[in-house]
């Protein structure tokens, strides 16, 4: 899986991609991430890509052409890629969506900022508007990380054991480990007895109830 991320702030991804499962997936070449900064496609010496919106209103809008050129460069690496345009109020991103996306080899994710990106970009390329939730964030970088994480988990070999996918097994939202009992402020906290019973059928039933 090759993620192509269009963003003004590629360094925002450094910490998350540099830790744990995604870091290992990149090192093992299970996934690849390439960034394309629209600032690299403008000729003014200030690398400015934002302008006031037509029709008035607060904030600034990212120009269309730098974003178009960034997407164009990403598409030069592949003729077959799904392009995702992040939006706070469009199609909801789900595990099912991630599962289907993981079957692709290339995913282009367009991250907005400020008051958004000039909407004419959507007329140039065929893309799908996707939301990670009914709320507004400062930029598309966090939603892009959510999508990359969720899709990567579906890529064979990323988790090591595919049964680690919670959605593929019976799993309670609550989990417990050793010690069996611990005390905190003179109160004992115990693992539910059913998990210590060894009765697999009853444990699976308990997990179903806790989902």
TrEMBL record:
**What's a GO biological-process term for it?**
tRNA N1-guanine methylation
Q: Where does S-adenosyl-L-methionine bind?
A: 112
What Gene3D superfamilies does the database record attribute to this sequence? 3.40.1280.10, tRNA(m1g37)methyltransferase, domain 2
Task: Quote one Gene Ontology molecular function term.
Answer: tRNA (guanine(37)-N1)-methyltransferase activity
What region holds the tRNA methyltransferase TRMD/TRM10-type domain? 1-209
The EC code for this enzyme is 2.1.1.228
What the entry lists under SUPFAM superfamilies is as follows: alpha/beta knot
Instruction: Note the subunit structure.
Output: Homodimer.
UniProt record similarity statement: Belongs to the RNA methyltransferase TrmD family.
The entry's protein name is tRNA (guanine-N(1)-)-methyltransferase
Q: Which organism is it from?
A: Candidatus Zambryskibacteria bacterium RIFCSPHIGHO2_02_FULL_43_37
